Amino acid sequence: MGPLQLADLIGLDVCLSIMKVLHEGLGDPKYAPCPLLVQYVDAGRLGRKRGMGVYDYRKKPVTPSPRL
Q1: What DSSP letter does each residue of the chain carry, written as one string?
Q2: How many structural domains comprise the chain?
Q3: Among candidate residues 36, 37, 30, 31, the one with its CA nearest the CA of residue 12
Q4: Where is the 3-hydroxyacyl-CoA dehydrogenase C-terminal domain (predicted)?
Q5: Which of these, 8, 40, 50, 68, is most buried using a 10 Å CB contact count?
Q6: Considering the entire predicted model, what is its pTM?
Q7: Residue 12 lies in a domain
Q8: Residues in Cβ contact with 5 at an 8 Å cutoff, skipping those fewer than 6 apart
């Protein structure tokens, strides 16, 4: 599992909240949330729990053909 899949699993809204707390608490600009993350959360793309985050989880899984 890569870092973006993990972020989707955790929830992009949770990741954003964590980054905001770290940025405000530590004052380090490396913890400032990236604008794309903010856009995704504002658009409701929260990860697996909403069916769409960085990846689209709404797709149906591939099923084998009944002829096989």
Answers
A1: --HHHHHHHH-HHHHHHHHHHHHHHH--GGGSPPHHHHHHHHTT--BGGGTBSSSB--SPPP---TT-
A2: 1
A3: 37
A4: 1-57
A5: 8
A6: 0.82
A7: yes
A8: 54, 55
- Residue 10 φ then ψ, to 5°: -65, -40
Which amino acid does the sequence have at 41?
V
| Percent of the residues in the chain that have a pLDDT greater than 90, as a whole number | 82
Q: Model confidence over 45-55: pLDDT tens digits?
A: 999 999 999 99
Q: Which residue has the higher pLDDT, 65 or 38?
A: 38
Domain assignment present for residue 63? The answer is no
Q: Phi and psi of 52, rounded to 5°?
A: -155, 135
Q: Which of 68, 51, 47 is nearest to 59 (CA)?
A: 51
